[in-house]
Amino acid sequence: MSSIKTLHKIKFYGITAKKKYGQNFIFDENILSKIVQKSQIIEKINILEIGPGPGGLTQEILKANVNQVYVVEKDKELLPILNDIKKIFPNKLNIIYEDALNFDIKMLNNFPCKIISNLPYNISTVLLIKWLTSDICNTTCLSLTLMFQKEVADRIVAKTGSSKRSRISLISELYTNPKLVLNISSGSFIPKPKVDSALIYFEILKKPRYKFNQNRFKIIVDTAFNQKRKMIRSSLKNIFPNTKLALQKVGIEETKRPQNIDLKYFCDLSLIKQCKSTDLK
Fold first, then answer.
1. Does residue 69 contact residue 94 with C-beta atoms inside 8 Å?
2. Which of 48, 126, 162, 260 has the greatest number of beta carbons closer than 10 A?
């Protein structure tokens, strides 16, 4: 079975997953194939993969209708196996030895691209937020197909009214159409994590869903969800001179909690510079 081959490769190269890098390698070839399938590679395209590990997903991607594949890997011990894969696909695979947190995806703007990754768990949400808030709608990146811990994935795709609704739900909805497309059991990984995982496909919008002020949006959403059990009038009381009037101006019921407020209202709220009693008639 091909999954045994992957395990043999891990043993042959003496690869061990490192906790400090948040590494959990997928060895189930059926799952790897499904990840590529769910990423919807229709046209010839460039692919960015973060944290390729022993290269199982990398090889599945290289078999697809791709132009160039760029892998960003921080762990030097994984370079020999990746270089051996490069020998099989010499004109397609590009290995970048770098910390993914420092890699600018706009470097790939010369050709339409997609990001496909089994992200290191310890930086998964940090990377997602960095990509989305770095003007991703004006890049050539068309979609993200990313693996997260199941509980994180549930927060990302949570709709208004869900107790799992969070800051990352709003940010994902603002820039993309996120959809959970595959649940993956912990038994598909080595070492086996304590939790299951899920794959999310993010279709990147051509422009943010609503008009908003990025700096104020961040302050408002961070403040609201840091106190998500409080009514919105209480959590935002230090942001506006008159919170009640600000909420009234955009149509937010002051007794609502943040998870029950639609994204559009947060965006509208971010466009209010000041709200004094004279602003409303």
1. yes
2. 48
* Dihedral over alpha carbons 12, 17, 20, 21 (to 10 degrees): 90
Q: What phi, psi does 187 have (nearest 5°)?
A: -70, -5
Q: Are 108 and 66 in contact (CB under 8 A)?
A: no
The residues facing 241 across adjacent strands are none
Sign for the pseudo-dihedral over CA of 145, 151, 155, 157:
positive
Name the token pair of 232: 């919105």
Residue 200, SS3? strand
Residue 15 sits at φ, ψ, to 5 deg, of -85, 130
* Consecutive H or E run containing 167: helix 167-175
Tell me if residue 14 falls in helix, strand or coil. coil
Residues 34-46 have pLDDT tens digits of 999 999 998 899 9
Q: Tens of pLDDT along 222-266?
A: 999 999 899 999 999 999 989 999 999 999 999 999 999 999 999
Angle (CA) 139-178-112 rounded to 5° is 25
Instruction: Indicate whether this model's pTM tops 0.85.
Output: yes
